[in-house]
Amino acid sequence: MSIVDRGFQSDTVQTVPGPPQRRLTESEIRRLQRVEARIAENQREWAVLVRKLGMSAVARELGLTPGAVLHRVKKWEQGS
To answer: What is the pLDDT of residues 28-39, one digit of tens each?
Structure first.
């Protein structure tokens, strides 16, 4: 029997048995996209607020380094 007949079966990688993978419905996809958009907007608002309040003060309050706060602010301002 060839690989075409039986499908690809790896000798080294074992699969985990379980239910078949489920696909998202159109309404679930739209909901996910709306939530992602809200998260991105909140991140941008957070970045603006941190710049207004001062990164060092925010870093001290959150127990982070100013560099970590700066990295997050830059990332979120760019929309990543």
So the answer is: 999 999 999 999
State the pTM of this model.
Answer: 0.64
Total structural domains within the chain: 1
The angle, 0 to 180 degrees and rounded to 10, between the axes of the packed helices 66-77 and 26-53 is: 130
User: Which residue blocks in the chain are alpha helix, DSSP H?
Assistant: 3-6, 26-53, 55-62, 66-77
In a domain, 73, yes or no: yes
CB of 73 closer than 8 Å to CB of 47: yes
Domain of 35?
25-80
- Rounded to whole angstroms, how far apart are CA atoms 76 and 80? 6
